[in-house]
Amino acid sequence: MARLLKKMNASISDYIDRKFHGTQEEFDELLRTSSTVYVGNLTFYTTEEQIYEVFSKCGDIKRVIMGLHAERKTPCGFCFVVYYTREDTEDCVKYINGTTLDDHAIRVDFDWGFQEGRQFGRGVTGAQVRTDWSTGVYDQLRAQKAAQGGGRGFGRRGGYNDRRSGGGRPRDESYPSPPPGPPPAKRARRNDYVAEAEGARAGSEAEREPRERNPRFRDDDSDKED
């Protein structure tokens, strides 16, 4: 029973935005109704055109916002994709999350809504925080503060830009409702993509099924199971 209650109360996303000033209930409600997704773990060379090509298979796209290095204004490994409808947003998270783009397994998650300024990296160097961690930037800062006799911790540009490390993107006062949905013609594209994804998954699961065992070894196997 406790597990059932925990599942019923579970958040729609593991993402925590440390800059969101509302309540957890308000944040979860935005995640449940938003038509925006966050895309992480992109290569620095993935283009906006590639994002449109892949993500439009789940529905018509209103806007793509590429994540940029705050200082250099160059791509830094993430983006936001805004759909016209919630249905397409849910299909996107369901079918594209975990797929491969430019040899990277990309992460797609529900987002509470893009606001100006969130396209920039929040690490101390202007990149994503996860990039600064992986390149040892924060270790160097800690060492410098320790050598100077400074206190624990250090300043950041605005918090985390890594979903699983906790979010750190500015919050706007409101999130506008999405415009009326696009023409029904897009459904054919989405359904084709869904069928293709489900077929690929079914094939993959079939390959993982164990081959029929040799009857000569069945007795030995049953003994091991006992």
From TrEMBL:
GO terms for cellular component: nuclear cap binding complex; nucleus. Keywords: mRNA processing, mRNA splicing, Nucleus, RNA-binding. Residues 148-158 have a biased composition (Gly residues). Residues 35-113 form the RRM domain. Residues 176-185 have a biased composition (Pro residues). Its main location: nucleus. It holds the Pfam family RRM_1. The keyword Metal-binding does not apply. The keyword RNA-binding applies. GO terms for molecular function: RNA cap binding. GO terms for biological process: mRNA cis splicing, via spliceosome. Residues 144-226 are annotated as: Disordered. Residues 159-174, 204-226 have a biased composition (Basic and acidic residues). It comes from the Eukaryota. It is found in: Nucleus. PANTHER family: 20 KD NUCLEAR CAP BINDING PROTEIN, NUCLEAR CAP-BINDING PROTEIN SUBUNIT 2. Belongs to the RRM NCBP2 family. This is Nuclear cap-binding protein subunit 2. It comes from Tetraselmis chuii. The lineage of its organism: Eukaryota, Viridiplantae, Chlorophyta, core chlorophytes, Chlorodendrophyceae.
